[in-house]
Amino acid sequence: MGYKLRLKWLFRRSSGLLGLLLVAAFVTVAALAPWITPHDPLVQDLNRRLMPPYWVQGGDVVYPLGTDALGRDILSRLILGSRVSLLVGFSSVILGSCFGVVLGLISGFRGGGVDSVVMRLADVQLAFPPLILAIAVMAVLGAGLQNIVLVLSVTGWVQYARIVRAEVLSLREQEFVTAALATGVSEVRILFRHLLPNVMAPVIVVATFAIAQVIIAESSLSFLGIGVPPPIPTWGNMLAEGRDYVASAWWLSVWPGLAIMFCLLGINLLGDWLRDILDPRLRNI
């Protein structure tokens, strides 16, 4: 499918276009976060604690979404929190997918004992629910941005390895691989020059949906207090801070909840569009 045809398909799919716009908006906000936050998200002012949004009685247009229990601007914290959530999401998926793809390529191409070891390791990890495993590891390593990226990367490699292995098992018997081996091409070159481009389509689709899953996992860990530690704002710990004020200060929980919802909506819509584009069986052009 050519470039123009892909654009035509995108604009025919309004949901895909909406997903792309939402993801682009969140990524832009996250990238520009230090320069577009109206206030310092870490500065406390108890004289302005629990101010409602500006359209509610008692609100102030200077703090359009209100303030939290410590007088910090919620809008600024949402903007900075988007950077943390997207950084964790993209970093974890990139690291996990790279590790899983390499293992899947080697496992599928070499077969035998290597394949058995990799697949048994994957089976052992799949026996543990990912979030429970992440909670257990974070309890040992301690809270921190680097630790949460590492944990979510390690818990996410299995799906890429299994998908790539299944694709390579069918591709390694193809004529272009046999010809490459016959001409003396090294296994490394075959793996990364000939096989890797042919298995990237499903990997891209899975990685897109995995970003949404990782953002939920990071928010869950931060909500439980074992993710990114305060005072760094994340959508998860903002939800945790607002749970005691649901009845009296609804805005503390509503805004980070909506941010998570719309971010995941955009990622899932974009993932659906990518799946339709990259899977010929789903095209209807």
General description of the model:
With 285 residues, the chain is an all-alpha fold. The chain has one domain (3-33, 67-282): MetI-like (MetI-like fold). The protein contains twelve helices and no strands. It is elongated. It starts with a helix and ends in a 7-residue tail after the last helix. The mean pLDDT is 85.
Give the integer mean of the pLDDT values.
85
The helix/strand order is HHHHHHHHHHHH
Write out the CATH superfamily name: MetI-like
Annotated CATH architecture: Orthogonal Bundle
CATH topology: MetI-like fold
How many strands, what sense, and barrel or not for the largest sheet? none
Number of helices: 12
The CA-CA distance between the termini, in Å, is 10 Å
* Fraction of residues in β-strands: under 5%
**Integer-rounded radius of gyration:** 22 Å
Uncertain spans: none
> Briefly, what CATH class?
Mainly Alpha
Helicity range = over 70%
Shape: elongated
Q: Strand pairing plus helix content: what structural class? A: mainly alpha
Overall strand count: 0
What is the number of independent domains? 1
